[in-house]
């Protein structure tokens, strides 16, 4: 068999291990390389359908006694997978492009925001390369906006760096963002000339920003992930 839907090693492994999709191995690789999710983390999964990243995120929290939460948001109503998930996982059916930030923060303990934000959002693929890349870029910008705030996106790199550093010791959370100081952000994008724009915004804001094409990515796919670690920790 051939084509994007053909079963392969990761597809078969996902079935064998009880993951609802082969995409689980993308986050598993990120977790192995970057250790984004730790015991007690609060994780937001944007575009969570069908739920494979919910499974990996919950596993990464460790035993139930360690605490932590995983919240998935998707346009579709997503049932929490029965395998690899526990009571710490919940899903919300909403449009990420329009849901208020205060509504997202309200899903976290003391409304403090999330320590890890994962965006695996992808547009409905049209097959037109430039159109699909542009739509993916808009989803990526929205994920970044939710994480660090729209005000930061409008400023220069120097202004962004000062903002990231100035509130790093604050006990509260800026009304314009959902990511906690020191938190991590992952954004999926389709490769294009525009993707570097997000990287340029993130590099002065985070301790480290790097690109990753996971091994589980299909050879025909243009997916690439921007991994941002340590918000405001530079």
From TrEMBL:
Domain of life (superkingdom): Eukaryota
Domain Ribosomal RNA methyltransferase FtsJ residue range list: 19-231
Active site per the UniProt annotation: 188 (proton acceptor)
Transmembrane segments: none
Biased composition (Basic and acidic residues): 155-165
Residues covered by region (Disordered): 155-178
UniProtKB keywords: Methyltransferase, rRNA processing, S-adenosyl-L-methionine, Transferase
Pfam families found in the cross-reference section: FtsJ
GO terms assigned for molecular function: rRNA (uridine-2'-O-)-methyltransferase activity
Family of the protein in this entry: Belongs to the class I-like SAM-binding methyltransferase superfamily. RNA methyltransferase RlmE family.
Protein name from the UniProt record: rRNA methyltransferase 2, mitochondrial
Organism name: Liquidambar formosana
């Amino acid at each position: 068999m051939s084509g994007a839907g053909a079963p392969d090693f990761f597809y078969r492994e996902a079935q064998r291990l009880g993951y609802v999709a082969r995409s689980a191995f993308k986050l598993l690789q990120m977790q192995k390389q970057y250790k984004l999710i730790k015991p007690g983390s609060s994780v937001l999964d944007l575009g969570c359908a069908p739920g494979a990243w919910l499974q990996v995120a919950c596993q990464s929290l460790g035993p139930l006694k360690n605490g932590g939460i995983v919240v998935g948001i998707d346009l579709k109503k997503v049932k929490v997978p029965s395998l690899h998930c526990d009571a710490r996982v919940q899903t919300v059916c909403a449009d990420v492009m329009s849901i208020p930030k205060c509504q997202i923060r309200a899903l976290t303990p003391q409304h403090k925001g999330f320590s890890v934000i994962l965006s695996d959002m992808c547009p409905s693929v049209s097959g037109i390369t430039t159109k699909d890349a542009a739509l993916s870029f808009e989803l990526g910008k929205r994920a970044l906006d939710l994480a660090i705030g729209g005000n930061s996106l409008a400023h220069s790199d120097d202004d962004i760096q000062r903002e990231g550093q100035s509130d790093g010791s604050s006990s509260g959370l800026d009304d314009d963002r959902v990511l906690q100081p020191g938190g991590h952000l992952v954004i999926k994008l389709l490769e294009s000339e525009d993707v570097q724009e997000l990287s340029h915004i993130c590099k002065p804001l985070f301790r480290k920003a790097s690109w990753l094409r996971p091994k589980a990515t299909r050879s025909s796919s243009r997916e690439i992930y921007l991994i941002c670690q340590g918000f405001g920790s530079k």
